[in-house]
Amino acid sequence: MTLMAVDFGTKRIGVAVTDRAEKIALPLASLAVRSEADGVDKIARIAAEREVREIVLGLPLGRHGDDSRMSEVVRAFAEKLRAAVSVPVTFSDESYTTKLAEAPMMEAGMSAKKRRGRVDAGAATLLLRAVLDSRHSSDG
């Protein structure tokens, strides 16, 4: 069983998974999606194939930790995803993950076109790493 993190977007969805020991966060995909339903279907399929035990959905909160317009869209997506999967769908603050994922790519001179295909999976990986770090620090 593994954990999956999802960086939701209306055009692309970033996906990252852990190894089976849940020690390492690995980028899996940046999925192009045509609709919310398409996104739900793709995430549900990956979750089943990867035997995911939990899906962590990045929640874009405002600067003061309050809901933003996009966080409401993500919450609605989560409800549809919960109906399509048999595992818990939880939230974790995703503030700045996209900017943090994109920064080293920009510094390396990667074009915007190349970044577009990688930044979403990178953001999901950073989100998942933060979740793992938080959970492991509370274990000990």
CATH topology: Nucleotidyltransferase, domain 5
- Low-pLDDT stretches: none
Q: Can you write the helix and strand succession as a string?
A: EEEHEHEHHH
The main sheet orders its strands as 3-2-1-4-5
Query: Major sheet, described briefly?
Result: 5 strands, mixed
SS summary, helix count: 5
Q: Fraction of residues in helices?
A: 40-55%
What CATH architecture would you give? 2-Layer Sandwich
Please state the structural category.
Answer: alpha/beta
**β-strand amount:** 15-25%
The radius of gyration is 14 Å
Would you tell me the overall average pLDDT? 84
Number of extended strands: 5
- Give the CATH superfamily: YqgF/RNase H-like domain
The termini sit apart by 22 Å
Shape: globular
Integer tally of domains = 1
CATH class descriptor name: Alpha Beta
Written overview of the protein:
- This protein has one domain (2-139): Nucleotidyltransferase, domain 5, CATH 3.30.420.140.
- Helices cover 48% and strands 24% of the residues.
- The mean pLDDT is 84.
- It has a five-stranded mixed beta sheet, with helices on both faces.
- It has 140 residues and is of the alpha/beta class.
- Strand 2 and strand 3 form a beta hairpin.
- The longest helix is centred in the C-terminal third of the chain and has 21 residues, at 119-139.
- It has helices at 36-49, 69-84, 97-107, 112-116, 119-139; strands spanning 2-7, 12-18, 25-32, 52-59, 89-93.
